[in-house]
Amino acid sequence: MLLSQNSQLILRNKNIFKTKKVFFFGSIQDDYPLYLKTISTIINLKKYSDYIILKKKKKIKNIEIKNSFLLSKEIIKDCNTVIYYWPKDKSEAKFQCMNLMSHVKIDTEIFIVGHNSSGVKSAFLILKKWIILNKIDNAKHCILYSGILKKRTTFILEDFYKIHVWKNLFIKSLPGVFGHKKIDEGSKLLASTFISNSHYREVLDIGCGTGFLAVSILYCSPNAIVSLVDDNITALHCSRLTLHANNFTGEIIRSDLYSNILKKFDLIISNPPFHDDLKITFKLIKNMIFHSRIYLKKSGELRFVINRCFNYHFILKKYFKKYIILKQTNTFTVYQAFVN
């Protein structure tokens, strides 16, 4: 079992939790929550892929695994201890902690663990109205804090939404979703390649995020049938709202890339991520390209945008009969690849 540095710090202090009813939440990067000895454990994961992996590994009866967008008293149940993994995005941390502290009981002990580079030290200031944090331990550039909740937060979901406008389209977003602070320039470049009334009938948006690409293609081709896929349950919520805000419809699918996709498409579009919290990884992009052939019709097309500093000529040449650079700037490249 390969543990993240955050989980290694929890492991060093494992004896604290033996008599606790623990609720795990936040940017959990491994399966250590399954193995920490507690009276009972509830784990809430924001990624569907992590949820599936932990569900398969779960063998202990006193552990529950959730994949919920928002927390509630019913999800947290009678947990008296929280272990929160601090994410790299402070706005996401505030959003999640405010939601959490509106439902846990007063006098719940909350542990916060995070890497220095994630900005975990800002937890003191962000949460000081509700909890006084004390440093418990630190190692390998990570810190573990603890505090007792003395006052519940008032959580109003609407306070956290941001609405961006692009070409008369309304894009609704929440912290922790790609494109929350502003519409990504790479996504704009990809959207600029969509033409009015194209022949693409069925379209799949992989990693839909806020739903920006989906509504952009529906704006150009209102008769297209668009399926929106994401691993992040908060992103799926935002995509649903973005569709509704622009009077469009689409099928929202919770899926780890193509894991819950059951049909073929004329066009697959994506602005795939290469960050997983603080880590850089290209595994998702490679899997998206490789497996796309299975989910494209005979005349189907894969169209995606990527940072220009990354070269995908080799993998596209290997798996597609034809591909071109459709559009390029100093920062981004839009690739267009054809099955036949």
Automatic annotation (TrEMBL):
<feature type="domain" description="Methyltransferase small">
    <location>
        <begin position="169"/>
        <end position="336"/>
    </location>
</feature>
<protein>
    <recommendedName>
        <fullName>Ribosomal RNA small subunit methyltransferase C</fullName>
        <ecNumber>2.1.1.172</ecNumber>
    </recommendedName>
</protein>
<dbReference type="InterPro" id="IPR023543">
    <property type="entry name" value="rRNA_ssu_MeTfrase_C"/>
</dbReference>
<comment type="function">
    <text>Specifically methylates the guanine in position 1207 of 16S rRNA in the 30S particle.</text>
</comment>
<dbReference type="InterPro" id="IPR002052">
    <property type="entry name" value="DNA_methylase_N6_adenine_CS"/>
</dbReference>
<keyword id="KW-0489">Methyltransferase</keyword>
<keyword id="KW-0698">rRNA processing</keyword>
<dbReference type="InterPro" id="IPR046977">
    <property type="entry name" value="RsmC/RlmG"/>
</dbReference>
<dbReference type="InterPro" id="IPR013675">
    <property type="entry name" value="Mtase_sm_N"/>
</dbReference>
<keyword id="KW-0808">Transferase</keyword>
<dbReference type="GO" id="GO:0003676">
    <property type="term" value="F:nucleic acid binding"/>
</dbReference>
<dbReference type="GO" id="GO:0005737">
    <property type="term" value="C:cytoplasm"/>
</dbReference>
<comment type="similarity">
    <text>Belongs to the methyltransferase superfamily. RsmC family.</text>
</comment>
<comment type="subunit">
    <text>Monomer.</text>
</comment>
<dbReference type="Pfam" id="PF05175">
    <property type="entry name" value="MTS"/>
</dbReference>
<dbReference type="InterPro" id="IPR007848">
    <property type="entry name" value="Small_mtfrase_dom"/>
</dbReference>
<dbReference type="InterPro" id="IPR029063">
    <property type="entry name" value="SAM-dependent_MTases_sf"/>
</dbReference>
<feature type="domain" description="Methyltransferase small N-terminal">
    <location>
        <begin position="7"/>
        <end position="162"/>
    </location>
</feature>
<keyword id="KW-0963">Cytoplasm</keyword>
<keyword id="KW-0949">S-adenosyl-L-methionine</keyword>
<dbReference type="GO" id="GO:0052914">
    <property type="term" value="F:16S rRNA (guanine(1207)-N(2))-methyltransferase activity"/>
</dbReference>
<dbReference type="Pfam" id="PF08468">
    <property type="entry name" value="MTS_N"/>
</dbReference>
